[in-house]
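Ticket opened by: R.M.
Priority: normal
Category: complex prediction / small molecule

The reporter submitted a protein together with zinc ion and asked that the result be attached to this ticket for the collaborator who will pick it up next week. Submitted input follows.
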Amino acid sequence: MVAAGQPLDSLATRRAHLAALSQAAPVVLPSLLLCDFGNLEREIRRLEDAGVRALHLDVMDGQFVPNMTYGMPIVEACRRLTKLPLDVHIMIANPARYVRQFMAAGADNLTFHIEATAEPRPVIEQIHSLGGTAGIALNPATPLSAIDGCLDLVDVVLVMSVPAGFGGQKFHEVAIEKLQQLRRVVRPEVILEGDGGINEQTIARCHAAGCQFFVVGSAIFGRPDYATAVQGLVVHARS
Ligand code: DX5
Ligand code: ZN
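Result attached by the on-call engineer:
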């Protein structure tokens, strides 16, 4: 029985889930940005039937990025609709202010941007204290040195291969070098995740560079059949 107010899942449990998922790499995570939000339940069932192992939720505030998507209510709705792990990517200013709300809404992994805070460590520690695994994201223009100060603490590094804010953008090659460098320096249990412009033409080079989780939007939601799209991406990742 989980004590009142305690997270439903502990950090140790979520880390174990993450480690188990990384054993299944390459793992494709659909990005809930370009999906049909008017039929969220149907979309999630189609993704579950396509065999996806987690969902990537793109939260945008219109301040940190020049776009707005959704917040806690959609995370809560996804939490009610599926047992799949929720990988919540918050592209918001002042992420520390909303950690508690996104964890309470049902995030399993919570990834925030290094560009959005001068003090990433307390944010990571707070996510951990609430039972979540913590990810740090960096845009293509941000050098790896920006996250040097928190690599010992994070569970996930989200390497953006497009500037955060929109789906359907062109892949930025700088992500490949970052993935290669990160693989050489991060602890073996740290997950490398790529996000943006990942498709059948770009996924293999990301995988070869050490990426394990692949966030994909238009290369899934732009296709008639999600299972075919996901399976095609996994095959190309290994090619
Ligand atoms: C962009 C988001 C990405 C994006 C991926 O800010 O973080 O997850 O939706 O979409 P595609 O795969 O179309 O680049
Ligand atoms: Zn994302």
